[in-house]
TrEMBL record:
Residue ranges of every copy of the RCK N-terminal domain listed in the record: 1-117
GO molecular function, one term: monoatomic cation transmembrane transporter activity
Gene3D superfamilies: NAD(P)-binding Rossmann-like Domain (3.40.50.720), Regulator of K+ conductance, C-terminal domain (3.30.70.1450)
Protein name: Ktr system potassium uptake protein C
Native organism: Desulfitobacterium hafniense
Amino acid sequence: MKTVLIIGIGRFGKHLATRMTELGNEVMIVDKEEEKINDLLPCVTRAHIGDCMDEKLLRSLGVSNFDICFVCIGDNFQASLEITSLLKEFGAKYVVSKADRTIHEKFLLRNGADEVIHPERDVALRAARKYSARNVLDYFELAEDFSIFEIEVPDNWVDKSIKQVNVRSRYNINIIAIKKNGKIIPVTSAEHVFMENQHLIIAGNTKDCSRILDMK
């Protein structure tokens, strides 16, 4: 469990606060609009109505006591920049700031952000990758050149084992799990036989994985 401070309860901040709470974290939210705070009161640990550009208010939150501070202000970059800087000045351990434009990232990092996230860009990239290939069911990029994909079993792999297909040597990827009926089953043997209606969880260099994404 972590203690989390979320500043700015727009659409992203609201979803973040809700999910963080569901995952068992202690969440405090802050926004200057009372209505946004009231909507989330039943599901968060603490809430405060106010403008975090007010240094007194921000200092009073005890930001150094939180494991992570999120700055989720999307409509006012100057406010996001100033609050990010103040959080670090007041001893915040780890600050994650939301950016709507790529150019904003370098300024947020210079002003103290430990990490900058781009929700809309990241979702768009994920959707493009997922829907541009024939059999990609889900996709997650761990690094610029390393990804995990959930794919359908290619037709010409059905009734063959991992060893017979020679997956690692031929394609330079790893089959890490099988998904069937919503259940994830780790793959522990090269003797596993691929079956119809199975989904594969594969991992590897993104370019190597891409070679099998359109296989029939």
